[in-house]
Amino acid sequence: MRAIFFLLAGLAFAQAPPDLEKGKKLFVVNCATCHGIDGGGGAGPSLRKPRLAHGATKEELQQFIASGRPDAGMPGSFHLGPDGLPQVTEYVLSLGKIPETPLPGDPTRGRELYAKAGCAGCHIVQGAGNGIGPELTDIGSRRSGAALKEILLHPESNLPAGFVMVEVKTPDGKTVTGYRVNEDTLSLQLRDAGGKLHSFRKDQVAHWEKKPGKTWMPPYTGSDVDDLVAWLASQRGKS
Amino acid sequence: MRTCIGGLLLTAAALAQVPYSRLLQPDPESWLTYSGNYSSYRYSPLTQIDSTNAAKLRLQWMYQSNGAARFETSPVVVDGVMYITESPSDVAALDVRSGRTLWRYERPIPKDLRTLGFGRVNRGVAVLDDMVYVGTLDAHLVALDARTGAVRWDSEVADYKTGHCITGAPLALRDRIITGISGGEAGIRGFIDAYDAKTGKRLWRFWTVPGPGEPGHETWDGDSWKTGGAPTWVTGSYDPDLNLLYWGTGNPGPDWNDDSRAGANLYACSLLALDAATGKLKWHFQFTPHDTHDWDATEIPVLLDATIRGQKRKVVAMANRNAFYYVLDRASGQFLAGAPYAKQTWATGLDDSGRPQVIPGKEPSEAGTLVWPSLQGGTNWFSPAYHPGLNMFYVSTREMGAYYFKSEAEYKPGVMFAGGGERALPADENYGAVRALDANTGKMKWEFRLKSPPWAGVLSTGGGVVFSGSNEGNFYALDARSGKLLWDIQTGGAIMANPVSFALDGKQMVAIAAGHSLLVFSLP
């Protein structure tokens, strides 16, 4: 009985509420580059929502933060350690209690703009459109409104992690330009603007080079960009 | 009756497949130790596969691992039987002719075991006489019967609950088995152990962090030695003439926060030369004094004959994680030569004694400090290869920089004790290479570039072929003289293992673990 009492006392001590300020400090150093200084998103998704995509429970979220999602550009943060991880997890959860900043645009108008600007020529939303660029069905849960606006206005400076255009000159003098689908030391797979796949052995092309900062997506120049942002931000997954 | 017993004894003697004499002079058809020989050349003298025919290599068989984590095994091959390890600490014996399994040893791992700072991997076994030896994730050393996989003995090396694990292959000497220990991010106090090959009784232990009263203890502040790290997680080398073991040590703990451990922190980030009979330290060489970047010196020490300023010298060479290549006298530990083999921004060079001339301000910080190499180093645990005929040292090189972060570190048994970490630069800014170095000087002779910083070791062969792999699944053969690509295959899984070569019925084979498969190639 005595042993049980000490055990319970020990547990209670171990579960003392982590210091949110410490968590915030760790967040600013380790997470804010992508998730925004206030957690409102940037290159990475906004975390200011009550339900996060990768953390149904606190334990799950902590595990997710520790291991990251390197394939999607999020490094693991195991180095935060047994003290830092719960602190930063607690802080991320607290972000969900802050309401998201309302967006100024009109999503209904935004939907019309999306169709008018021809976005569906390259992007799929809810199963419709062409799969040249990234699917946008859940873009609103992966990017903040502010980040979406930045992407629309300056797409070349806001490319997703790992996205790169490549130009290949073939031995018969042709030039093939496409975005990189995959690459290893010896081969390269591209998809061109028509959606056609090209696969090359690097040692069998005349020349190839990456074109960082290049994309086919044109900057959006309309003054009604906020409407388009509002509609994209409302795309939160399969309906 | 008497005759019968005599017959049984004879049978038992015939079963002693790998006597010590065979380990001293390995036959080219076998691959008897982790690195192929005691000098750790990872070199097969076989010449059947050469630069004129390597393009015809084809798959003989493959084996699918049951292990969930990375498949980092380096097979040991004895008389047509291949012994491999799988995650977490399982052993399989395979028939080299067919690829079929002969036996498996499956070790249950305690549910509460956590690996701190590394995966649930195992890199291989040792063999001696009729036994196969494996170190386990729960920090035991286990001897198995080579014919059946039955346990002969099982010795606890350390308590896994304090973060001790074994992932590296043991090394078999005449009558003893040597093992190192992992746990450098858990605040362990590192050691190297020797066990009686027949009984599993511990013969000696060398603590890699000296205790009170021992030389080197003064290089630790206060009680910091108790959690000083210096783990010994990769297999070392052995010089039978000098009876010296060469074994590298890992980083001091906590890794990136040095507030509590002022001093050089001996013998972390060092190469140790130990008397194999007693475990006494003969000499040490510390590559990175007072390390704050996790640059373990657990890379493979290669024992070779070098020509230094016109003189033949018995040396030990290491391409260190800190991005410098070192050549030391093998008997004395004297520094003979050294040069960077990968990009590094932390030192202006090495002085005459081999000590790095450190650039101030490169320590981890709260805001992050950009340094090359990254904490994974210019290279890492995966093996280099040496070609004695060409005197070339082949090293899988990682060209990658990272921001190093410092955070608080408080020791609690069995939890991470690292005090920071890194954020690597974006993937497209990093790359890798297999580099051929002049073994005397470390000067680069050629390189074969890789898309990303690799996790695969290198094999060299008497046929003048170098084998290695990439993270993206390419397994490939290069001309050992020029680095020219001779052959490659896409294996479909990341290669994070060392290749080996051996022969069966006069046919040379090359084996590599890729993804969760083990692939064996030969000429048609």
Write the layout of secondary structure elements.
The complex is a heterodimer of chains A (239) and B (524).
Chain A: H1 2-14, H2 20-30, H3 32-35, H4 58-67, H5 81-95, H6 107-116, E1 124-125, E2 128-129, H7 139-142, H8 145-153, E3 165-169, E4 175-183, E5 187-191, E6 197-201, E7 207-211, H9 225-233
Antiparallel strand pairs in A: 1-2, 3-4, 3-7, 4-5, 5-6
Helix pairs in contact in A: 2-5, 4-5, 6-9, 8-9
Chain B: H1 2-15, H2 20-24, E1 43-44, E2 58-64, E3 76-78, E4 81-86, E5 90-95, E6 101-105, E7 126-128, E8 131-135, E9 140-145, E10 151-156, E11 171-172, E12 176-179, E13 191-196, E14 202-207, E15 237-239, E16 244-248, E17 270-275, E18 281-286, E19 302-308, E20 311-319, E21 324-329, E22 335-340, E23 347-350, E24 356-358, E25 369-371, E26 385-387, E27 392-399, E28 402-406, E29 420-424, E30 431-438, E31 444-450, E32 459-461, E33 465-469, E34 474-479, E35 485-490, E36 500-504, E37 507-514, E38 517-522
Parallel strand pairs in B: 1-32
Antiparallel strand pairs in B: 2-38, 3-4, 4-5, 5-6, 7-8, 8-9, 9-10, 11-12, 12-13, 13-14, 15-16, 16-17, 17-18, 19-20, 20-21, 21-22, 23-24, 25-28, 26-27, 27-30, 28-29, 30-31, 32-33, 33-34, 34-35, 36-37, 37-38
Please tell me about this protein's structure:
The complex is a heterodimer of chains A (239) and B (524). With 239 residues, chain A is of the alpha+beta class. Chain A has three domains: 2-95, Cytochrome Bc1 Complex, Chain D, domain 2 (Orthogonal Bundle); 107-159 and 217-233, Cytochrome c-like domain (Cytochrome Bc1 Complex, Chain D, domain 2, Orthogonal Bundle), CATH 1.10.760.10; 165-211, SH3 type barrels, CATH 2.30.30. Chain A has helices spanning 2-14, 20-30, 32-35, 58-67, 81-95, 107-116, 139-142, 145-153, 225-233, and strands spanning 124-125, 128-129, 165-169, 175-183, 187-191, 197-201, 207-211. In chain A, the strands form two sheets. A five-stranded antiparallel beta sheet of chain A has the order 6-5-4-3-7, with no helix packed on it. In chain A, strand 4 (175-183) and strand 5 (187-191) form a beta hairpin. In chain A, helix 2 (20-30) packs across helix 5 and helix 6 (107-116) packs across helix 9. Chain A is globular. Chain B has 524 residues and is mainly beta. Chain B has one domain (2-383, 390-522): Methanol Dehydrogenase, Chain A (8 Propeller), CATH 2.140.10.10. Chain B is 4% helix and 38% strand. Chain B has helices at residues 2-15, 20-24, and strands at 43-44, 58-64, 76-78, 81-86, 90-95, 101-105, 126-128, 131-135, 140-145, 151-156, 171-172, 176-179, 191-196, 202-207, 237-239, 244-248, 270-275, 281-286, 302-308, 311-319, 324-329, 335-340, 347-350, 356-358, 369-371, 385-387, 392-399, 402-406, 420-424, 431-438, 444-450, 459-461, 465-469, 474-479, 485-490, 500-504, 507-514, 517-522. In chain B, the strands form ten sheets. Chain B has a five-stranded mixed beta sheet, with no helix packed on it. In chain B, a hairpin with a 5-residue loop joins strand 5 and strand 6. The longest helix of chain B has 14 residues, at 2-15. Mean pLDDT of chain B is 95; it is low at 6-13. The chains are: A alpha+beta (239), B mainly beta (524). The A-B interface holds A 26, 29-30, 75, 77-84, 161-162, 164, 183-187, 203, 210, 212 and B 117, 256, 366-368, 405, 407-410, 412, 415-424, 426-428, 449-451, 470, 472-474, 476, 485, 488, 490.
